[in-house]
Design a protein that fits this description.
By secondary structure, the protein is mainly beta. It has 1 helix and 5 strands; from the N terminus they run H-E-E-E-E-E. 13% of the residues are buried. The mean pLDDT is 94.
């Protein structure tokens, strides 16, 4: 689970993050961290839509290499 400090750093910097949900890259969500609580993170996508995602997913900077997830 992503920490409060990491989420705050992403929010303050306005850096685009990649949310890796499974092994398919097409299922990734990219956007800017808007808000969060104990279980969810709100991400504003490039299309300005806001999505609510679990904190259990992998959150990385969009510029970093995408990790592979094995379930």
């Amino acid at each position: 689970m992503i920490s409060e400090d990491q989420l705050n750093d992403y929010r303050v910097s306005g850096e685009t993050v990649r949310v890796v949900r499974d092994n398919l890259e097409s299922n990734d969500v990219q956007g800017i961290v808007v808000a969060w609580d104990d279980s969810c993170v709100m991400i504003r996508k490039k299309s300005r839509r806001v999505v609510k995602l679990s904190r259990e997913y992998v959150y990385i900077a969009a510029t970093e290499e995408r990790p592979s997830i094995v379930n």
